[in-house]
Amino acid sequence: xxxxxxxxxxxxxxxxxxxxxxxxxQKDDPIYTEDMVVKMAEAARWGGAVGIRANSPEQIKKIKxxxxxxxxxxxxxxxxxxxxxxxxxxxKEVRAIWEAGAEIIAxxxxxxxxxxxxxxxxxxKQVKQEIPEAIVFADVSNYEEARRAIENGADIVAPTxxxxxxxxxxxxxxxxxxxxxxxxxFQDEAYVMMEGHIYTPEDAMKCIFLGAHSVVVGSAIxxxxxxxxxxxxxxxxxxxxxxxxxxAKH
Length: 250
What we know:
alpha/beta
């Protein structure tokens, strides 16, 4: 069942039908500067975004200081060699991004096994217990993971990791049929958002039409080097897969 907490509902309903911009930059990105994510977030606010998604306590804190009125979906990407789980993999990262100011905590909630040897979705219950004030955003890769995340208490589900698991690594476009089924089946239990592989306003609008509460867009707006790579990949007759750069560990 969707949350009945008045504060959480107010935050979630403020994003209904709108665009959330993922403002992320890694230190090895060609666009990296210390204030780049702040400029991204300020540009997103100017453009009418209803929320921000950001990575790492440092960047979350900077953005919240500059754009405090927009809800923050926080995550922390941490890579380990023995797992493909990298989005907020442990409660340590959860605590850090919560303290940095994120109202919404994004977690890998797939069936993948974490560095700690547990299914990623197990972390949801621990977060709900330790930080009940937090809104949990479940990043999943398929319908069944979305169902399991909701059963474990997730407030939001999105197919963010469709394309980032071994089973889906070959894909380049979103699975709109799967997403439509998620919207239809889970709309009374959680907030279903679209994130992943949305590159045009028209595609974002399709998601709203299918039932998305809101849409998260990142690379197509805030990472011009990857936008360039998508073009040159096609112009080069697909000899160099741009998604390898998008999926790279940092």
